[in-house]
Amino acid sequence: MPSPSVAIIDIGSNSIKLLVAHRDDHGHLVGLRSHTVDARISAGISQVPPQLSESGMTVGIAAIESLLATAAPFSPARTVLVATSAVRDAENGDVFRRKVAERTGHEIRTLTGDEEAGLIGRGLTSDPALDGINDFYLFDLGGGSLECLTFRNRCGIAAISLPLGCVRMTERYVPDPTAPFGSVARHAVTEATREMLTRSGYVFGLPVPPTAVFAGGSMTTVRAIFAARNGQTLLEADPILRVSDIRALLDDVGALDLKSRQTVPGLPASRADVFPAALTTILAIADAGDITEYRHSLYNLRWGLAAEAL
């Protein structure tokens, strides 16, 4: 018989996501319901000291309550709430956790960077589309952080979490997110990504050209834009995304002001301000690792948490 379901709520820097899942008769992890709310609780996280704003916390709590209501009809045996970079780094993260517990009755587990990276890797190995891939890089870019992992024989041998999320990078290096994304901002984000990767000690050691898998909302948006251009749904679109096409996409959207970017099919209006910085970071990773294409996967942190909970 299928296992009881679990509900996972991932409180990310840019969005808050739900996955309800169970294991089928064969032990495979199966998603029953997923939903994402763009809340951006991380706005202002680049200030010193990092703080969550009152408005951000209010929006975040409302999103969590909405997702709990969405999960309720499935009667999950367990409901797990986790927070990542924004809450982890914020000086007042404990205030947000306390507010959520008071409003919902659920405690939030704040993941360390290492835990987050490891659980993303566990989620990815649940993706049946990747069953035949043994050696690969895995990247997951969120609003607050970038997770970088290396797998050999499907076992993780390296995992780091870096403060290179697209909200954080936009706040630090893009003077006016409403204007076109100019060469100065592009250079600043590129150099910051390169420097952080170098200082972290993360080694791109797989044979060139390597297999590189990318999860997270930024790459989902890239695939959604290409899908819209071809009149396809997200799942119909090719999960193989060439770096040259991503570079051309940055040239296209970077030349637009914010109002124009918000009309690009497949690009959520709420992500349009941070999307150029996200693309620039993705390209800087590709350059550092001699990567020519990325394979997109929807199996990320929530799937790893579901596997753990089940």
Word description of this protein:
This protein is α/β, with parallel strands linked by helices. It folds into two domains: 6-110, ATPase, nucleotide binding domain (Nucleotidyltransferase, domain 5, 2-Layer Sandwich); 115-301, Nucleotidyltransferase, domain 5 (2-Layer Sandwich). It contains eleven helices and eleven strands. It has helices at 54-71, 85-89, 93-104, 113-124, 166-173, 183-200, 217-229, 243-254, 258-261, 275-289, 301-309, and strands at residues 6-11, 15-23, 29-38, 78-83, 108-110, 136-141, 146-152, 155-162, 212-215, 240-242, 293-296. The strands form two sheets. A six-stranded mixed β-sheet has the order 8-7-6-9-11-10, sandwiched between helices. Helix 8 (243-254) packs antiparallel against helix 10 (275-289). The longest helix is centred in the first third of the chain and has 18 residues, at 54-71. The radius of gyration is 18 Å and the shape is globular. The two termini are 14 Å apart.
Biggest sheet record = 6 strands, mixed
- Low-pLDDT residue intervals, each spanning 5 or more residues: none
CATH class of the largest domain: Alpha Beta
Fraction in beta strands: 15-25%
Helical amount? 40-55%
Compute the number of helices: 11
> Largest beta sheet: what is the strand line-up?
8-7-6-9-11-10
CATH superfamily of the largest domain: Exopolyphosphatase. Domain 2
Q: Order of SSEs, N→C?
A: EEEHEHHEHEEEHHEHEHHHEH
| CATH level 3 topology of the largest domain | Nucleotidyltransferase, domain 5
Please, how many domains?
2
- Rg (C-alpha, Å): 18 Å
Structural class: alpha/beta
What is the end-to-end distance? 14 Å
Count the beta strands.
Answer: 11
Q: Tell me the CATH architecture of the largest domain.
A: 2-Layer Sandwich
Question: Which descriptor suits the 3D outline?
Answer: globular
Please state the average pLDDT score.
Answer: 94
